[in-house]
Amino acid sequence: MGWQEYLDREQERFVGELLDFVRIPSVSAKPENIPDVKAAGDWVVERLGAAGIEGAVLLPTDGHPVVCAEWMGAGPDKPTILIYGHFDVQPAEPFELWSSPPFEPEIRDGKVWGRGASDDKGGMLVPIVAVEAMMKSDGRLPVNVRFFFEGQEEIGSPDLPPFVEANVDRLKADMIFSADGLQWAPAQPQIIEALKGLVSLEIVVNGARSDQHSGMHGGGIANPAMALAQILATMKSPDGLITIDGFYDDVIDLTPEAREAIARVPFDEAEYLAETGAPAAVGEPGYSVRERLWARPTLEVNGLTSGWQGAGTKTVLPAEARAKITCRLVADQSPERIFDLISAHVETHCPPGVTVKTERNPGRADPFLVPGGHNASTVAEQVLEEVYGVKPYRTRVGGSIPVMTTLLEHLGVHAVMFGFSHGDENLHAPDEFFRLDTFRRGQVAYCKLLERLGRD
């Protein structure tokens, strides 16, 4: 019996196991769920053993644990593949917006409904099931395989950098494939070539020692809220160009080939504006909306705080004003350098009569860009085209996934996102779901991927 027949025969069991997995409320952001995150890790260890992968272990970090396992029976002449995923999930609140309880998964309309079904429990179970099918049908795998599953992705993987650095020998591989990832649509695959980096900061402007009466002191001393507005106005031109000196210096320009690949992906600006409710598209001149979303750096104000926020009027001159800012970065920008450039800009443009400081907030990620001709991406693209029957789009993502750059930094390997979720599956939102036909298709894709890598 081949792996295809094994998958057919055991599919009902696999779906039942996914339901069991989703029932574990492994919410990494909530202290009361710490035991549940560990329970999910223990479940993964047991499931890897059932798949024929001996020696799976739950390992501690300074926070939530990770699971590591390996099967190295293909020998030194075959490549070693590292498969990554995560078993923690987002909080499920507000519970009243779910059609069924988030940790009591249900099957409806060919989909599993529950928190984490798509992100990433269904996704990370796919390669485990695929490996089991090959082990049970052939008694071996065509390549050496290592597994690395974490329990803290949804809180930014804060403890992964020191763990990966200390466990390079346990994790080193020739190629890395992430089971946490998206396909473009149920009938359209994609290869994600880049992720944006992130730097988070806050600008704090201070004036008088406390709020002052605006009738008695307005015009006599500076207003921090106005000063902050003046500072922010110097950071971007009206047409969307970021005006921080040196901000764009390290940006790798888009090649004609990269712009062509982005243009190949369908984009309807009217639909985009209808979806967001915005009256017009605005951004850096010289680039399409999609190029700006995917491949150009940004600077955005996320929140402003100053003065009276309640109903009606309170005639004060505020003592302090704050602005929270994040920048999404592209290769080869450094979060630390961008923070320093913004800090210097703020100091230079601070109006008289106030003091200003720029504070670094938690949250950073280096930008991630897969080089052209990347071997693992090429193989993944070939497999996806065979499985879906259409050529994958080559896309980029405006979000940040810190673990991708952590793996690159310490293992020296660019990971390929080879996951089978979709953006419409309510990831991080109520009524999250995972398509069962995609669950099955992903299993086939992983089997074909390992077969192809074993032949090459």
How would you describe this structure in keywords?
456 residues, alpha+beta, Alpha-Beta Plaits, 2 domains, 6-stranded mixed β-sheet, 4-stranded antiparallel β-sheet
Topology:
Elements: H1 3-22, H2 34-50, E1 57-59, E2 66-71, E3 80-86, E4 106-108, E5 111-113, H3 117-138, E6 144-150, H4 160-166, H5 168-171, E7 175-178, E8 190-195, E9 197-206, E10 212-213, H6 214-217, H7 224-233, H8 256-264, H9 269-276, H10 289-295, E11 300-306, E12 316-317, E13 320-329, H11 335-348, E14 355-365, E15 368-369, H12 375-388, E16 393-397, H13 402-411, E17 415-417, E18 433-435, H14 436-455
Parallel strand pairs: 3-6, 3-7, 7-17, 8-16
Antiparallel strand pairs: 1-2, 2-6, 4-5, 5-18, 8-15, 9-13, 9-14, 10-12, 11-13
What is the CATH domain class of the largest domain? Alpha Beta
Strand order of the largest sheet: 1-2-6-3-7-17
Radius of gyration, CA atoms, in whole angstroms: 25 Å
Reported CATH architecture of the largest domain: 3-Layer(aba) Sandwich
Largest sheet: number of strands, sense, barrel closure:
6 strands, mixed
Low-confidence stretches: none
Q: What proportion of the residues is helical, as a percent range? A: 25-40%
According to CATH, the homologous superfamily of the largest domain is Zn peptidases
CATH topology of the largest domain: the name is: Aminopeptidase
